[in-house]
Amino acid sequence: MHPALSVIVFTSASGAGYGLLALLGLLAPFGVLPDSRTFGCVALGLALAAIAGGLLSSTLHLGHPERAWRAMSQWRSSWLSREGLAAVATFVPAGLFAALWVFGGTVSPGLGLLSTAGAIVTVYCTAMIYASLKPIQRWCNGWVAPNYLAMAAMTGALWLHLLCRLFAFPSAAVAWLAVAATATALLLKVGYWRFIDGSRSASTAETATGLGRIGKVRLLEAPHTSDNYLLEEMGFRIARRHAARLRRIALLAGFAAPLLLAAAAALVPGPIGAAAALLSAPLATAGVLVERWLFFAEARHTVTLYYGASTA
How confident is the model over 41-57, as pLDDT tens digits? Predict the structure, then answer.
């Protein structure tokens, strides 16, 4: 699949924003985080800005962005519609939660938990947009939704840890939460890569054409003299050596290095631990962008079987 920059930014930014929002709503009412208005303003402002920026970025991939609101009318059958509705609905408790905290100095447990629930549901809906697409075997599997949720939790926890350090609030609970979230995301990402490397779609050129009973099916002549929309959007190819190199970059920058830095921040007090926390979140965010590019680039649509691919 063609890795569109707008969708990559959308899934990465909104995932981090929702992860941060979910943790703020869950932890702030119980005194785990600083209760100052300034912290609430910065943390919630960052979360909502990332969410809004990601959602706006997603509309750039549409042919008519001004009609994006119509997508929410098909919520009975479309995960995209459900995601849009969940995103809009989440802004209500999140906005009230932020307003009470920043302007009233009150951290509402009820609104916080509603914000957390809305964030989790929205990220799940985003994951299911891809996991529900049966023609793409590398998306339509049980690994996609847990990976989306885990990476949102990881980036959210790392940014929350960074903010706590900036506000001179070295919470051990937040530090170890960042370590646990990053380790979980790492395990799930490796599991996903092993799954797509070791499995293939049941669809082949033989099953797609219905000619398998005759023998091996091969393309005699290309159906087009030049690439068309389907090949550009769904027939994107990445060389195996490039994919392997990008996986190593994503693994190191997005998961392994942030995990080590988060662990160092949790174990080492003082400026060294603070520096480790400050490095982990931006590094993980950059790594997730690479990982998300690969998530699209390595996907194979069954329509390519009609253009010479032997398997999807």
Answer: 999 999 999 999 988 88
d(CA 190, CA 153) in angstroms, rounded, equals: 17
99 pLDDT band, cuts 50/70/90, is very high
The pLDDT of 262-274, averaged and rounded, is: 88
In which band, very low, low, confident or very high, does the pLDDT at 74 lie, cut at 50, 70 and 90?
Answer: confident
What's residue 213's pLDDT? Answer: 79
Whether 61 and 147 have beta carbons less than 8 Å apart is answered as: no
DSSP letter for each residue of the chain = ----HHHHHHHHHHHHHHHHHHHHHHHGGGTSS---HHHHHHHHHHHHHHHHHHHHHHHTTSS-GGGGGGGGGGTTT-HHHHHHHHHHHHHHHHHHHHHHHHHH----HHHHHHHHHHHHHHHHHHHHHHHT-TT-TTTSSTTHHHHHHHHHHHHHHHHHHHHHHHTT---HHHHHHHHHHHHHHHHHHHHHHHHHHH---S-BHHHHHT-TTT-----SS-S-SS--HHHHHH-----HHHHHHHHHHIIIIIIIHHHHHHHHHHHS-HHHHHHHHHHHHHHHHHHHHHHHHHHHHT---GGGGGGT-SB-
| pLDDT at site 207 | 72
Domain ranges of the chain: 5-307
* CATH 3.30.565.10 corresponds to the domain 5-307: no
Give the residue among 143, 138, 151, 158 at the shortest CA–CA distance from 11. 151
Is residue 174 over pLDDT 90? yes
